[in-house]
């Protein structure tokens, strides 16, 4: 098989960047500009799929993923806002198609590179952006898109003649606090989002560094930068996620040499420890979350969870109808939860959000998708492959990436709804598809035979061949 052009990896990096930096594009060039970029990505993704032979059959794809997407589309039948449900479903499908194109077009190593480029670009640009804002715009900066559309700032803020001094702080793109000791927002305009991207950057850079895909200096530099951005974001979710990911690394190291019977014993011990920790946190939530400067209900999330649950209980089986992003002009979203003049547009819990939108059926299907993907990526992280073309049964370093990323996304899904949309949904779809194909021994790419070598094989090259 001939070498794939490098532009496919660059396209994958741009698609992932756009998935996670959608707010950056919307703040810069409005929703219309972002929509044009998204359609361009869709066009290239479809073109890549048309060139791929053979494509996986539907039976090869994860059943929970297919069922969840179909159920979200079917909800237009009983939706209270059919146009918005249709639009949200199309956005969901566009993202899933992009994930499918990446899963069947890129090798594992190429995807790792693309993900790393995207995460490093967001982290690096965010750090530069925050420094520039603090120096040149000490009062903060508003999204440029607010000034492209006449009257849009007044409409969003609800303040006639609004300017940077009269709008709620939550509407600012950045508050320029990097030198003031307060949380930064980065190019994403949200500390929790940039904190999670920084965590993902730590994971992928660490994997690349260990696999020899980054030099020692580059790996160390980007790890320090990512950890600095994570700390500056002051995101409790990302900080907890970092601890859980570190724990997952320890579990992988422990589980790999164990027999199947001993692994089940490990699962039992870990399950008991996790249950004990959850019970302890539940009984001492104020004290535990106080250690990371948060209240027991995670800074007001308890109130919004109660509001969303009250609506979900009224439509417990089928839900209100899929909507993806909450539309602030629709009832009940426009008045569901408003804090300091800012309308909350998510439930801050992916499963609760799914329950309200697509009912118990949709929430269970979505939960099954997350759990099944976690299990498959765990298998890929700890199980030795069959003897490959190189004659080795060593577990590739990059095999841990999918599981560690899924762990981080799963942690975030408990306090944010991002797993249902944009970059998080893109990665969930990608890892669900890729892990299913690998577990079925249906590789996304035909295996390549090892060319004749007179010298040692680089680790990254070995893993590309194994993929």
In short:
The chain has 467 residues and is an all-alpha fold. Helix content is 63%, strand content 1%.
Structure explained in plain terms:
The longest helix is centred in the last third of the chain and has 33 residues, at 350-382. By secondary structure, this protein is mainly alpha-helical. The protein has a two-stranded antiparallel sheet. The protein contains 17 helices and 2 strands. Helix 1 packs antiparallel against helix 2 and helix 14 packs antiparallel against helix 15. Residues 443-462 have low confidence and may be disordered. It has helices at 7-20, 22-51, 63-74, 82-105, 108-136, 145-148, 152-157, 191-211, 216-233, 236-255, 260-283, 285-290, 301-314, 350-382, 401-412, 422-439, 459-466; strands at 338-339, 342-343. It starts with 6 loop residues before the first helix and ends with a helix.
Radius of gyration: 22 Å
Give the terminus-to-terminus CA distance: 14 Å
Order of helices and strands: HHHHHHHHHHHHHEEHHHH
Largest sheet, described in full?
2 strands, antiparallel
Write out the strand line-up for the largest beta sheet, numbering strands in chain order.
1-2
Helix/strand class: mainly alpha
Indicate the mean pLDDT.
88
Number of beta-strand segments: 2
Q: Which geometry do the CA atoms define?
A: globular
DSSP strand content: under 5%
What ranges have pLDDT less than 50 throughout 5 or more consecutive residues? 443-462
Alpha plus pi helix count:
17
DSSP helix fraction:
55-70%
